[in-house]
Hints:
Blueprint: H1 5-8, H2 12-25, E1 37-38, E2 43-50, E3 53-60, H3 66-84, E4 94-105, E5 112-122, E6 129-138, E7 143-146, E8 156-157, H4 166-181, H5 189-192, E9 201-203, E10 207-212, E11 225-230
Parallel strand pairs: 3-4, 7-8
Antiparallel strand pairs: 1-2, 2-3, 4-5, 5-6, 6-7, 9-10, 10-11
Amino acid sequence: MRIPTLALAVAGIAALGWSSVAIASAAPPKCGDLSGVVDGAQMCQIQATDPAYALSITYPVNYPDVQAVFDYVKQTRDGFLNVAKMPGPHDMPYELETTATEYNSAVPPRGTQSLVFKTFQDVGGARPQTFYQSFNWDQGTRKPIQIDTGGSDKIQPLFQPGANPWPVIFPIVQSEVDKQSGQPVAIPPAVGLDPTKYDNFAITNDAIIFFFSQGELLPESAGALQVSVPRGPIDAMIA
Length: 239
């Protein structure tokens, strides 16, 4: 962080003090800021237990997009605790368990890193919920990768501008879901061709893995899903 010009005009200890504050404000968020502990595998372990709830979150501290991951973990933790600490009895203790899985790709012209969070949450509803959140990083451009960039040049698109991969991807997803279900399961085209349903993904050398939270692609009773789409049919459209 650049030190303000005014600070440079302050002599001696005052200038040093201002510099220290400026540097501290630029420090990246840490596991300890979330009441977590970093283990030997460089995983942040966050645990919180109470007669009314149990919380467990684990994630790697060395993912490049540190702030985005920190913000998501904090939001997940705080949202659960706000609900769990609300007045009133629980039939069963509320539960949240969040784990993270890393994926990598080294396909030219650049490599990628993916981090996928899977969260199981039970806060006394009709059924527990499982949902995903992914983060993808382009090691060449040093930018996050998303399907919809929102017009920002600070985000790397997964697919090339103007590409329409969904008519290729949807049949593959439909076929794989049928296999996983052991029977034909109809996914409405309005759902299967909707790019927003594919926001959570991971990139590997051989495939793009899409993660669908509970109720996102199929009824909630079907649970959460993940589908691996081979890169071959869509590789020419990947940015």
